């Protein structure tokens, strides 16, 4: 299943057009809430992520920069009463600071699958 951030005529990024076709050919679903000629505007991505988190049992964040779509989705999931898991990294990288914040303040840590 794939949710689009624009209409079916504005696949973003364009390289994903083949992936979209394959999802449909293999019996999957591709959905959008946008009308014809809707471009993939920045505001559309959090709106799309709201649907993704709403249909999910929970959200797992593995790496995320300070203002990433992953963290927007995690926030939306929390607002929807969903579980949010942050997988701690074992490397020292710029992403771990934000994941530690997520771990400590807003989500459960799933160590069961590490």
Key phrases:
114 residues, two-stranded parallel ribbon, 4 helices, 37% helix, disordered C terminus
Structure description:
- The strands form two sheets. This protein has a two-stranded parallel sheet with strand order 1-2. It has a two-stranded parallel ribbon with strand order 3-4.
- It has 114 residues and is an alpha/beta fold.
- The two termini are 26 Å apart.
- Helix content is 37%, strand content 11%.
- The chain is globular, with a radius of gyration of 16 Å.
- It has helices spanning 17-25, 44-55, 69-79, 96-105; strands spanning 2-3, 30-31, 58-61, 83-86.
Shape: globular
Q: How many strands, which pairing sense, and closed or not: the largest β-sheet? A: 2 strands, parallel
Question: So how many helices?
Answer: 4
Span from first to last CA? 26 Å
- The radius of gyration over CA amounts to 16 Å
Strand content: 5-15%
**Which structural class do the helices and strands define?**
alpha/beta
Sequence of secondary-structure elements: EHEHEHEH
Spatial strand arrangement across the major sheet: 1-2
Topology summary:
Blueprint: E1 2-3, H1 17-25, E2 30-31, H2 44-55, E3 58-61, H3 69-79, E4 83-86, H4 96-105
Parallel strand pairs: 1-2, 3-4
Helix pairs in contact: 2-3
